[in-house]
C-alpha cells in the first residue's frame, strides 16, 4: 500500500487529489496539512511513502518543507513531489535542489497523476526529458556548482556515464540498452553513484549532472 501525505493550503485542491487517490486500491491518503510546518509534523507522525507538497504556502513554504524532510534521517523513505500551478515555476529547481523527487503541474490529467504517485513511491524521478531540458536550460546554466564537479571525481567512468544518461531522462532499462549491460548492472551503477554523491534519488542526480557540467545545457 502506497501511503500519501497531501500538503496544500487550498482545501479544494486537497479534496480533489484525495478523491482521486481514495479510489485506488493500492494508495492510501494518511493525512492532510495546510502548510509546510504541519506537513513536516505529519510526515514524522505517519512516515508516508509520498508527500505531495505545494510550493507556495503560509508559515513554511514547500521548498523549506522539502529541505527539512530531506535533512531528517527519520524521513529518508519519504519521496517529496512538488505541486505547482505552472510547469516552469521559478521555484521548481530550488525544490529539486532541496531534495524533491520531482514535480507535478496541478492541472495534470487524473491517470497521469496516479501514475506519477506510483513512480514517486518507487523512488524514481518525476522529470520528463522535455521538462528537464527546459528547466536546466533556464536555471542550471546560471548556477554552475564547481563543488559538484569535484564530487563526480569519486565516480568510475561507467558510473559517470550512467549518471549522464539519468540526466537525459533514461530509465534503467534504457541505460542498460545504451551501455550494453544488464538492467541490474545499470541499476547498480546508478545506485552506487547516488551513494557516492549523497543523492536522495534520481532527481538529485539530474541536478548534480548539470551543475557539475557532466551534461551541458542546450544553447538553442
If you had to describe this structure to a student in words, what would you say it looks like?
The structure is a single chain. This protein is α/β, with parallel strands linked by helices. Helices cover 52% and strands 13% of the residues. It has eleven helices and five strands. The chain has helices at 11-22, 36-46, 62-71, 92-98, 110-121, 129-139, 146-152, 157-167, 172-179, 183-197, 202-211; strands spanning 2-7, 27-33, 50-54, 79-84, 102-105. Strands 2-1-3-4-5 form a five-stranded parallel β-sheet, sandwiched between helices. Helix 9 packs across helix 10 (183-197) and helix 10 (183-197) packs across helix 11. The chain is globular. It starts with a strand and ends in a 9-residue tail after the last helix. The model has no long low-confidence stretch (mean pLDDT 84). Keywords: DNA-binding, Phosphoprotein, Transcription, Transcription regulation. Residues 3-121 form the Response regulatory domain. Residues 148-213 form the HTH luxR-type domain. InterPro entries: CheY-like_superfamily, NreC/VraR/RcsB-like_REC, Sig_transdc_resp-reg_C-effctor, Sig_transdc_resp-reg_receiver, Tscrpt_reg_LuxR_C, WalR-like. It holds the Pfam family Response_reg.
N- and C-termini, Cα separation: 44 Å
What is the makeup of the main sheet?
A: 5 strands, parallel
Poorly predicted ranges? none
Q: What's the overall geometry? A: globular
Protein name: Response regulator transcription factor
Organism: Streptomyces roseicoloratus
InterPro entries: CheY-like_superfamily, NreC/VraR/RcsB-like_REC, Sig_transdc_resp-reg_C-effctor, Sig_transdc_resp-reg_receiver, Tscrpt_reg_LuxR_C, WalR-like
Keywords: DNA-binding, Phosphoprotein, Transcription, Transcription regulation
Amino acid at each position: 500500500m502506497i501511503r500519501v501525505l497531501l500538503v496544500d493550503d487550498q482545501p479544494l485542491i486537497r479534496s480533489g487529489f484525495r478523491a482521486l487517490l481514495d479510489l485506488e486500491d493500492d494508495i492510501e491518503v494518511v493525512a492532510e496539512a495546510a502548510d509546510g510546518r504541519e506537513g513536516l509534523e505529519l510526515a514524522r507522525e505517519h512516515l508516508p511513502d509520498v508527500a505531495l507538497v505545494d510550493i507556495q504556502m503560509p508559515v513554511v513554504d514547500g521548498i523549506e518543507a522539502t529541505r527539512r524532510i530531506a535533512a531528517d534521517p527519520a524521513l529518508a523513505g519519504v519521496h517529496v513531489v512538488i505541486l505547482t500551478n505552472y510547469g516552469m515555476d521559478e521555484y521548481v529547481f530550488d525544490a529539486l535542489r532541496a531534495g524533491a523527487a520531482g514535480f507535478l503541474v496541478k492541472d495534470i490529467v487524473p491517470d497521469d497523476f496516479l501514475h506519477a504517485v506510483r513512480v514517486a513511491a518507487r523512488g524514481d524521478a518525476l522529470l520528463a526529458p522535455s521538462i528537464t531540458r527546459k528547466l536546466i536550460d533556464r536555471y542550471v546554466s546560471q548556477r554552475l556548482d564547481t563543488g559538484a564537479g569535484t564530487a563526480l571525481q569519486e565516480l568510475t567512468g561507467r558510473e559517470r556515464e550512467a549518471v549522464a544518461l539519468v540526466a537525459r531522462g533514461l530509465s534503467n532499462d534504457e541505460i542498460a540498452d545504451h551501455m550494453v549491460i544488464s538492467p541490474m548492472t545499470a541499476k547498480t551503477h546508478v545506485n552506487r553513484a547516488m551513494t557516492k554523491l549523497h543523492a536522495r534519488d534520481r532527481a538529485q542526480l539530474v541536478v548534480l549532472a548539470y551543475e557539475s557540467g557532466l551534461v551541458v545545457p542546450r544553447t538553442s
